[in-house]
Amino acid sequence: MEVWEQVFQLGVLAAAIRMATPLLLGTLGEMVAERSGVVNLGIDGVMTAGAFLAFLTAWLTGSLWLALLVAVLGGLLVGLFTGILVIDLGLDQTVAGLGVMLTLYGLVYFIFRLLFGGVGTPPAIAQFGPLPVPLLSKLPVLGPVLFNQNILTYLAFSLAPVMAYFLFRTPAGLALRTVGENPQAAAAAGIKVRAIRYRALGFASAMAAAGGAFLTLAVFNSFTFGIVSARGWICLALVVLGRWSPWGCTAAVLLFGSIDALQLRLQSSGALAIPYQVFLMLPFLATIIAMIIIARRVHAPEALMKPYSSEDR
Amino acid sequence: MLEMTAISKRFGDALVNDDVDFNIKPGEIVALLGENGAGKSTLMNVLFGLYRADSGEIRLDGTRLSIRSPVDALGHGIGMVHQHSHVVRRHTVMENLLVGRPGGRWQLADASIRQRLLEIQDEFGLWLDPDVQVSGLSIGEIQRLEILRALIDEVRILILDEPTSVLTPQQVEGLFAAMRAMANRGVGIVMISHKLDEVRALSDRVVIMRRGKVVAELDNDKTLTNAQLSNLMCGRAVEPVRKSPAASPGKTLLALHSQRRGSVTLRANQIVCLAGISGNGQVEITEQMSGVAPVSDGHLEIDGQIVEEPTPKRIRSLGVAYIPEDRQGAGMVGAMTLEQNIVMSRSDSWPFSKWGWLRRKVIRDFASQKIAEYDIRPPRSDLRASLYSGGNQQKCLLARELSVSPRVVVIAYPTRGLDVQASDFVYRKLIELRDNGAAILVVSDDLDEVFTLADRVAVICAGRLTLDCPADETTPEDVGLAMMGSVAQSAASKEGTT
Amino acid sequence: MRIRLEPRLQTSQSAMLLAPIIAVAAAMVVSGILIASAGVNPIQAFGTMIKAAVGSRSAFLETLLKVTPLIFTGLCAALAFRIKFWNIGGEGQLLLGAMAAAYVGTQTLPAWSYLPLMIAAGFLLGGLGALLPAWLRLKLNVNDTVSTLMLNFVIFFGMMALLSGPWKDPISGWSDSPDIVMNAEFPIIVERSRLHIGFLLAVGSAVVLWLVSTRTTFGMAMKAIGENPRAAHHAGFSVSKIFLVTALLSGGLAGLAGVCEVGGVQFQVISTISPGYGYAGLVVATLARLHPGEIILSAMFLGAIMTGADEMSRQTGIPATLADVVQGVSLLAMLIALVFTRYRLRLRASNKKVEAL
Q: Are B46 and B9 in contact (CB under 8 A)?
């Protein structure tokens, strides 16, 4: 019983929401790219790069917003570069994505070691602090959990309705979905398939980088080796779990976040005599199981991972 | 008035449109008639901006148009409904109508299009629920969706590419009524077709193309005859492949029984042609006969024995050859070489392999021999199959499937997309096999083909076999009617369906 | 202007030869720039790398030791990618193989049986680690890229739990598994080195797979189901059986990488038993264009880079993560170069409509 009391401490729930933020950013971005028919498999590398760029900028300038901006722009550039590979050259999206990821890992840790290699612990930077919402943060239970977060978390969680509106209510959203389902039909209706895919991939990459930046700017207030710890990969799984819908993805992120928070608590409670790695395993195992459960009801966009060339009819 | 003048279009070595003139006036229904490969679809694709002509010009009311894409064409009021439609299956009808349509920047033009749709539906009697997903629609309804889209775009010229090939008779009636209504409102309609009866029934004017040229232009004054049109279409009194009279059919080699559909029986020394409008259940029959798909409500018998759990491999080992409808998708592996494709289905047996090892010399020699025998061009065995034309791919498949001297041959649309020579080759090959004792099923929607080949004719409509009788006891007219679902009189009743 | 790719009639032989050279050159240019930016002469640094990797007998043999698992994981990826099974799980399958070998190696068994049993157990367990996601994709349409990836983490943490639980050294308290018995250690094939029989096993596997993929009906079936499963089904191949068997083989090969690390290098399972060999296998396979024979060469290239980068890092202080950059850049350059073996580049004005044949 003691275990469960600890698990449901309000502070834990608040932390769960905060830790879900980078996943939410990455997942929603990836969802948009996949809706246009492109998988951004380099996402884990992009997150790492975003985290590092933000850390570096904040360390150099002390400005958190500038750090975020630099990370986002860096992510955008990587997205456009990936676009050349998978949209223009039609490279296999799995392997090209892995190439981008490896290159980014290598580059980031190379520069990181070069700059901070001699220092025992990398320098700490300022971080986005909590920004209580007036009145709402005073609510019992919900207040401290939901309305005492930092500004980026508020922004991330307000994205779902915005993106739902964009995808399903605007001409641009319809065009994006059409490109991901049937690029030939989209082209016949005068939609510029390649341009839309570039934008979607750029957006996805920028969002992933923002997710990485969140880790350094609002969670760990520093950069360490392996800071992203597979969060990018998890985003890929969460898009499938969220069945390519903004609300679904948000729900998937929250589900994953709560399992993650739960395992963290169980780990530190020490109440169960199990090696802590078993708990670390839980979120990944849960993701696989959830994918199996929903497998029959999942429909990926029909043109997902299929390169489009204007010669196909 | 829209005029196309001196249009020429070349694909590689083939001159597909050769100095073609074509025009259409508002409110006119023009039938563009010709055999497969005559160049009629190409001409209309040029008009719709999918292809660009090598030379020639297009004028609308005297102004020269530059049409580089379908978007340009639509901008000039030219719309087209293709055989293979460009709709998004996982969108709703409404979303399909909205795609690419400039609405408000932040808001889809949902309400205004909905309003417009209602008006059009009233006006032309083309009903469709705007909020259902397209994946749940029938082929006829999807075609209706494309026509509605063109009407919302307020096209002045509407091109319909073989619009009736996928429709049931009732749907054809509905479509014709809508086409007449559109023409009455001043829309010029081009109907690409090779169905003579339809052309005579509906069009105001008939333009006939042959081998890339316009060979005749006739006003439809209700005196045209099918024979007259068909002579013009084919250029000569058609010299069909003459088959020797059927030897008396031998014993039953393969029978496919189904509760719902009825039975198909293939006997030695006999070609059965299964006629029907595509999409009526022919593919299921061929796939079940070849073991590709399971037999759901019945069973498959070969040599009088029921085949339990048929698989393609097992069926083939019983002497059944199968050439599917979709050559690129189901027949060939485009990324593999021609020789690999030629031996693929037998690669695990003597003489092509021994204990799982390929005998490459044998394979190469065999492929070279088949390439010569079937006159496959270019005569190379080491090129990727995807580089070959449709006709040569078909020959490659024939070489693969027929080289074992099969006892049963199941072949779907044997000459679709082939030129006259290649078709002729296929016909002779099939007849030769029959004369050597094979039982053959040919699936076709081309009545000329059916009556060239068939010893026996079967018709399928809406998933049911509705007619089955010797070829000389029925007529193309009766079969055509049966394909459309009216099986009331004549042959069927004479023979009695099985 | 826009870029347009025009298919070539036949894959260009000269481009095929050039592709890996371009890939290596691109990787050298990028890493050269990075080295220079760290204030070290790139030529010298490369010299150090080359010397450390192949400069002496012992260096070369140590490199071959690193090449061994890379050949296995490269074969794992190549085999899976040939049938379009997106197995990113080589890392996890390697760990499974290592655990199986460590388990067998600590049992009491007849001396002769350790080697075959460790190999069989590692192969089987690794294979099952790939079979599961392959089966899930076939039967339930579960995305294989994601499931194999997630399994890597499940297996890794599972192994860590094992190491800090049942396999924990009771005396020292280290999170390492118990050492395997002497008889289970792989025979050394070159005197005065650590190079063990696993290297021969790896090269042998590559040769066998090369023969299987080019000379057998199974190889033809693999290619057919990878390129067009529907046509393969029509041609009589049993698509799901071939898919699952290939997946099993793929995972099994990665498992052998783990077996070799346990049997020939570490003699126990440690948390860092694989410095990302599984992921590097994806690069190895791509650099080799999925060709089993060429995998030996690309594995040697990556093995040399990894060993060389470590040594260079020790001598010059340049971070060894440079090896990751080299991997990533050469992978991308190879992919791009390969496009031009099948296509020609055409530049044309953007307003011209491209027509289809």
A: yes
- Dig out the tokens for A227 from the structure: 């800071």
What is the value of ipTM here, to two decimals? 0.86
- What distance in Å separates residue A110's CA from the closest CA in chain B? 41
Cα angle at B364 between B358 and B370, to 5 degrees?
120
Contact (Cβ atoms closer than 8 angstroms) between residue C242 and residue C31? no
Q: What is the average per-residue pLDDT within C66-72?
A: 97
Give C-chain residues touching A95 at CB under 8 angstroms. 81, 282, 286, 331, 335
Looking at chain A, which residue has its C-alpha nearest residue C344?
A89
Helix (H, G, I), strand (E, B) or coil at B293: coil
In degrees rounded to 5, what are phi and psi of residue B250?
A: -90, -150
The per-residue pLDDT for B404 is 82
Query: What pTM value is reported for the model?
Result: 0.86
Whether residue C335 is predicted with pLDDT greater than 70 in this model: the reply is yes
Tokens of C304: 């040399």
In whole angstroms, what is the distance from residue B220 CA to residue B226 CA? Answer: 12
Residues 13-52 of B with CB under 8 A from C: 49-52
Please state which CATH number belongs to domain A2-118+136-297: 1.10.3470
Tell me if B292 and C234 make a contact (CB, 8 A cut-off).
Answer: yes
- Quick one: pLDDT band at residue A313, thresholds 50, 70, 90? very low
- Closest-CA residue of C relative to A117 is C319
Q: For residue C214, what is the nearest residue in chain B, using CA coordinates?
A: B358
Window 163-192 of C, Cβ < 8 Å to A: 164-165
With beta carbons less than 8 A apart as the criterion, state whether C97 and C256 touch: yes
Hey, where are the domains in chain A?
2-118+136-297
Nearest CA in chain B to A303: B88
pLDDT given at position C300: 94
**C-alpha to C-alpha distance for B469 and B392, rounded to whole angstroms:** 33
pLDDT at A265 over 80: no
Chain C: give the shortest CA distance to residue B171, in Å.
32
Q: Does any CB of chain A come closer than 8 Å to the CB of residue B112?
A: no
Give me the residues of chain B with pLDDT under 50, please.
237-238, 488-498
Token pair recorded at residue B419: 């030129």
Residue A218 DSSP code: I
Residues of chain B in contact with residue C10, where contact means CB-CB under 8 angstroms, are 383
Token pair belonging to B127: 């009903």
Out of A68-72, A169-173, C181-185, give the one with best mean pLDDT.
A68-72
Q: Do A109 and C319 make contact, defined as CB atoms within 8 angstroms?
A: yes
Tell me the nearest-neighbour CA distance from B110 into chain A, angstroms. Answer: 9
